[in-house]
Structure formats: structure tokens, C-alpha cells
Amino acid sequence: MRKRTAIAVSGLVTAAVTGAAVAFGGWGDGDGVASAEERSRTVGAGEQHVIPSPDAGQRELLLHDLEAVGPAVVADEDQAVEDARWICVDIRRGQPEDEVRDAVSQRFRVTWEETASVLDAIRGTFC
Fold it and tell me: How far is CA 120 from CA 4, 66, 127, in A?
């Protein structure tokens, strides 16, 4: 009797895991590499926006271009990339240029004049 119960429970657990994996997008093409969409997060209330994520080469180029603006801009590389991703969202939302430059100035702690170079770096690499 215990064996039948164990087999039944095991079958139910397997079915539940399989159903959850299929429902939540698991077991894709099986290459183990996340697509750009899978690496990105989605934000927004009502209207969805994907936060782009640079690949390794784009990240390296972005950091190089940002460092040209000033070494302090990339003192925390991960934060610089994260800030660039959010600026890209603002760009893709169609925010006015002045608002985007204000956001760049605040996120990267750069002067108004330097915001143009930061935006060039973001637009020229992954956004």
C-alpha cells in the first residue's frame, strides 16, 4: 500500500513540475544560453518596457566609452552598466532629450556637457 501511495505522489509531483516548467517558460531550446530577452527584465505599469542588457562585447565597449568621459563614471562598473540600462529605457520610452540628459547627469554624476558623451556611449553600444 505504501509503495502505491509513493508512486502516486511521485507521479503527481513529476506532473506538477513538468506543468510549471512549461507554463513558466522552462525547457526552452536546451542550449543553456539565455537570450537577450531572457537576460532583460520587463518594467512598466500597463505599458511594458524591456530593459535591454548589453552582451559581453557591448558591455566592454560601453565601459571603455564611459571611462573616456571620466574614470569616476565607471568606478563601479556594474552600477554604470545598470544605470546605462535604465537610461536606455528612458530613451526607448521617448522621453524628451532634456529629461534624459537630466537623468544621465543624476545617475552618472556628470556635468550637463558630459551627458552628451554618456548618451553617445549608451546609444552607440546596445541601446
Answer: 66, 9, 10
Helices (runs of H) and strands (runs of E) counted in the chain: 6, 2
Pairwise CA distance, residues 109 & 112, whole Å: 9
Q: Which residue type is seen at 47?
A: E
pLDDT tens digits along 13-58: 334 433 333 333 444 444 444 444 444 445 555 455 578 999 999 9
Q: Where are the alpha helices (DSSP H) in 24-96?
A: 36-39, 56-69, 77-93
Rounded to an integer, what distance in angstroms lies between the CA atom of residue 39 and that of residue 33? 10
Q: Strand (E) positions, the chain?
A: 41-43, 49-51
